[in-house]
Amino acid sequence: MASAADVERLFLQSVLSRGMVSKKLAQTLWERSIAAVKAANDALNIPHPRPEDGWNNFLSKVNKSLDKLDLEFRHLHDETSGKEMYALVNRKGDDIAQVATDYTPAEIAFFKAIVEQIMMAPREAFSVSSLGALRELNAIKSSMSKTQAEIVLASFVSRDWLLKSKRGRYSLSTRSLLELLPYLKSTYPDELLECTICMEVVTRGVACYTNNCKTRMHNHCFANFRRRHSACPSCSKEWPRESTEKLLPVGEGAAREGEDGKRRVRLKSADPSDDEEEEDMDEDEHSQQTEIQPERKTRPSRQASRTNARYNDNSMVIDEHDEDEDEDAHRQNPQRNRRSSRR
């Protein structure tokens, strides 16, 4: 005999068969689940699913049932369309084990390396080129061939883990942001940005052009905000009404050709209490496994550094001129360098 609890079961089965669904589709599935259960048992008194409060109460019941399984029916707005999307996600897992179901450990390591390059892209570009993605095979010392890696990349795209643009650049999809959000927050707390309006994670949108201003918005949030306001919500700088060209892009629009020639890596300081440092490492230097020791000095806040980097093309890139000077100094005073190495 059908019961009211069968509505939740039927709804979750419908969601699982579709993966990620919009809010409109999710509510439609809820209505049809109720209709199917009522058809099986006319004696059931199930409230009509029209009011918004009824939908929110239903979501609370669903997530309460899923809590013991470390699952959650989570929602997030699509960064491109602005639509509210829902998906059943895994709240438990080591690192990004959420993608481990259908992929081998080598493929997961490859995906993790790509995510790192996306998150650490300069000027908040949050994307990586095809060449940069394939280069990660050498970084993780994978036995995959280039052809195999291209097939895996296509699989990441077809299964909505990554997005691939017309320029051939890879970025995080809504599904990745939904499922990997806890991992991204814990691993890249300084790189992850939040929309000033909706407070959700933003990897594509616009930023205020005022130096050190922290305003970041999705494109759809910016469009809604500009209908009522003409100034930045953080720094109160008046934005031009006629054009938005002065606003800085967040996402692929901020990427510049040739930047993926240097891969960015996170180096941990010897002192566990110190913050993790970010350095650019040339591909040749990385292959030789040259160690780069971060300079210990007082640094500005990470957010300010990221904003200032937009105005300095050479920010966070190893200066080849400085390297030449260091090499000359090494030749002129080899004994001093040998003493320093002993320390």
From TrEMBL:
User: Where are the stretches annotated Disordered?
Assistant: 243-343
Provide the GO biological process annotations.
double-strand break repair via homologous recombination
Composition bias, kind Acidic residues: at what positions? 272-285
**UniProt KW keywords:** DNA damage, DNA recombination, DNA repair, Metal-binding, Nucleus, Transferase, Ubl conjugation pathway, Zinc, Zinc-finger
Q: Which residues form the RING-type domain?
A: 195-236
MF GO annotations: ubiquitin protein ligase activity; zinc ion binding
* One GO cellular component, as annotated: nucleus
UniProt catalytic activity: S-ubiquitinyl-[E2 ubiquitin-conjugating enzyme]-L-cysteine + [acceptor protein]-L-lysine = [E2 ubiquitin-conjugating enzyme]-L-cysteine + N(6)-ubiquitinyl-[acceptor protein]-L-lysine
Task: Give me the stretches of Polar residues compositional bias.
Answer: 301-315
**What does the UniProt entry say about where the protein is found?**
Nucleus
EC assignment: the record states: 2.3.2.27
Main subcellular localisation: nucleus
* EC top class named in words: transferase
Q: How does it assemble?
A: Component of the Smc5-Smc6 complex.
Summary of the function given for this chain in its UniProt record: Acts in a DNA repair pathway for removal of UV-induced DNA damage that is distinct from classical nucleotide excision repair and in repair of ionizing radiation damage. Functions in homologous recombination repair of DNA double strand breaks and in recovery of stalled replication forks.
UniProt record similarity statement: Belongs to the NSE1 family.
For this entry, the protein name equals Non-structural maintenance of chromosomes element 1 homolog
**Which organism was this protein described from?**
Crucibulum laeve
